[in-house]
Amino acid sequence: MNPPTLIILVLYYSRRGATRKMAELIAQGIDSVAGCEARLRTVPAVSTVNETVEPDMAQDGPPYVQLQDLAQCAGIALGSPTRFGNMASAMKYFWDGTGSDWLAGTLAGKPACVFSSTGSLHGGQEATLLTMMIPLLHHGMLLMGLPYTEAELMTTATGGTPYGATHWAGLDDKKTVSAEEKRLALALGRRLASTAHKLFAN
């Protein structure tokens, strides 16, 4: 009898599509690992008074995340564009509503990684990745980044950090994902899925 497929949640927010491209690449990396399957999910936008301002169902792309996705996954890749060195408010709003899962330890012991995109090359990519790690640490997740055995970390002139995969989208969001950014995003997805497989396949 074959073991059940491990679901790896790729949870992201994307306003103009750059972070979504990164999420799709990470999902490809996850899907390349036998026994693992990426589940893409997003979150709705919120207003300045922290109320969701979009329909109950996503009109385009993956569905909105549900708390049951946290329980069903064996790991999480978390992505957001940079907002002054932090995750977007829509993603923060979702995590602020996960107190019951924190109390239950739903995510404790599961592996996680983070990814981001920015309009400017030095626009807070690494700060965003580090601040996105904080709620994951509070949930007891096992955080991983990209090791320097990934040669592109030494050669990239665009995005890519040891803290997680990143993309330099440009101020108009028209910069395509570079070859280095693509390889690093795929590598991060593979690393997350491989770790989850080692932890939970048996």
Feature tags:
alpha/beta, 6 strands, 202 residues, six-stranded parallel β-sheet, single chain, Rossmann fold
Q: Tell the overall outline.
A: globular
CATH class: Alpha Beta
Question: How would a textbook summarize the main sheet?
Answer: 6 strands, parallel
* Average pLDDT, all residues: 93
Q: What is the third-level CATH name, the topology?
A: Rossmann fold
Give the DSSP E fraction (strand runs of 2 or more residues): 15-25%
Task: Give the helix level as a range of percent.
Answer: 25-40%
CA distance, first residue to last residue: 12 Å
Unreliable stretches covering 5 or more consecutive residues: none
What structural category arises from helix and sheet content? alpha/beta
**Total number of domains:** 1
Question: At the fourth CATH level, what is the homologous superfamily?
Answer: Flavodoxin domain
The CATH architecture would be 3-Layer(aba) Sandwich
H and E string: EHEHEHHEHEHEH
Walkthrough of the structure:
Strands 1, 2, 3, 4, 5 and 6 form a six-stranded parallel beta sheet that branches. The protein has helices at residues 18-31, 67-72, 89-96, 99-104, 125-138, 152-155, 179-200, and strands at residues 6-12, 36-42, 75-81, 111-118, 142-143, 165-168. The two termini are 12 Å apart. Helix 1 packs across helix 7 (179-200). The protein has a single domain (6-200), classed as 3-Layer(aba) Sandwich (Rossmann fold). It has seven helices and six strands, in the order βαβαβααβαβαβα. The longest helix has 22 residues, at 179-200. Helices cover 37% and strands 17% of the residues. With 202 residues, the chain is α/β, with parallel strands linked by helices.
